Amino acid sequence: MTSAQVDKGQDGSQATAVADAGTAGEGYQRALGARQIQMIAIGGAIGTGLFLGAGKAIAKAGPSLILAYAIAGLVIFFIMRALGELLMYRPVSGSFSEYAREFIGPFAGFVTGWTYWLFWVVTGITEVTAAAQYMTFWFDIPQWVSALIFTIILYGVNLISVKLFGELEFWFSMVKVTAIVGMILICAGILTLGFSDAGDTASVTHLWADGGFFPHGISGTLMTLQIVMFAFLAVELVGVTAGESKDPKTVLPKAINTVPWRIAVFYVGALIMILSVVPWTEFQPGISPFVAAFQKMGLGVGAGIVNFVVLTAALSSCNSGMYSTGRMLRDLALNGQGPKFFTKLTKSGTPLVGTTFSAALMLVGVWINYQWPGDAFTYVVSFATISGMWAWIMILVCQIRYRGLADRGMLPQSTFRAPGAPYTSVFALAFIGMVIVMMGVDKDARVSLYCAPLWAAILGVSYLVLKARNPENKAFAKN
């Protein structure tokens, strides 16, 4: 712990002082308002995992995928409330590595920062891969060409100010939210009024009549958990925006508390409607269930519109990825755990060097699309899931450590305590552990577990080298 954190007491003014100390000197512009943060939080969980990955998950689990999303969504809420408790204690940009550094140790902060950076690089590749697949709906062009064009365009977008980034993400998210709500309303109309080609056969009985609610058994549902958890990756993005929020102590709790209804409407509600209108047996892996549903309804124009929406969703997530990577690299550099040139900011407060470096690595996605256009999404999703879940694990462990210290009076109490913690945090950790086991069983997802030890070895060696070169650096000193 820092001396400032140890010296502060438990009253509200002192807690605020800790938070202010955590964000002072970062150099960012607090330009993200409540409206933007809310939509970033809502849109962060609506992307490729739902629009494209759900197609494969439906084929594996059938209607029971609804239950998988509901249970996983509850776990996500526990994670977000744990993050919220930490953010109200000390809202900082690069929060995950900061908390790991404070509550576990310098090596944990180093691993968390670089792993979360890698997660967003890989996720960027995932999203640009999905976007390239969506383009084939209209044009017969190679996936790698679309992936290259999108990567270059989004890099250009990320050279703008954070305020404009927030505004773009607001409208990106608005498009996604409007599309899902529209889909739900159309499906509800078909179920009640019977219009479109699917009107005669649409029925909620499809949820259990075509092979049962668990057509492939419980095991089939469990095998979709890594796809389901991938769909929720990026909900923690609000933690990265903490250092650039105008009023984090007011805005962030409100954004986090929207998690339950977001999941209930956009995941559970949307899937119930789609699988009631179109039997689950008619969906195929690699094809967006939203696009496929409109095609089955005979609404060709609607399918084109939805394809545009899911394209927007993928590009939005990739855009958020470029935003996150630059901030995470700068946080590492500021703490002496990354090259100093990553600390440089433009006049508009953008970490240009870190964003440029990350965007260059995202071009690897172009090569992946060139080499394996059919399997690219599956490979990249698996690795993104395991690296992204590391951040969740660190959030939960840090919240447990923080709560223990705060309850003993060694740190100020958070103004946004996680209900049921630490038990809910322990439950969430156990659930993530089960997902990792399921990934080991799944031959397609297993490749990510093979890569994890290699990445850990690279980080371990890098940490020792940096520590040997900078023995006096406080970033490598134990708390």
Structural commentary:
With 479 residues, this protein is an all-alpha fold. The chain has helices at 3-7, 12-23, 34-44, 48-51, 53-61, 65-89, 95-103, 106-135, 143-157, 162-193, 206-209, 217-222, 225-232, 237-240, 248-256, 259-277, 289-297, 300-334, 352-362, 364-371, 376-407, 423-441, 446-469. It contains 23 helices and no strands. The longest helix has 35 residues, at 300-334. The model is unreliable at 1-25 (pLDDT under 50).
- Look at the structure and give the mean pLDDT: 80
Distance between the termini: 5 Å
Helix content: over 70%
Outline type: globular
Low-confidence stretches: 1-25
Q: Counting H and I runs of at least 4 residues, what is the number of helices?
A: 23
| Quantity of strands, as a count | 0
Order of helices and strands: HHHHHHHHHHHHHHHHHHHHHHH
The major β-sheet equals: none
Rg over alpha carbons = 22 Å
The percent range for strand residues is under 5%
Coarse structural class: mainly alpha
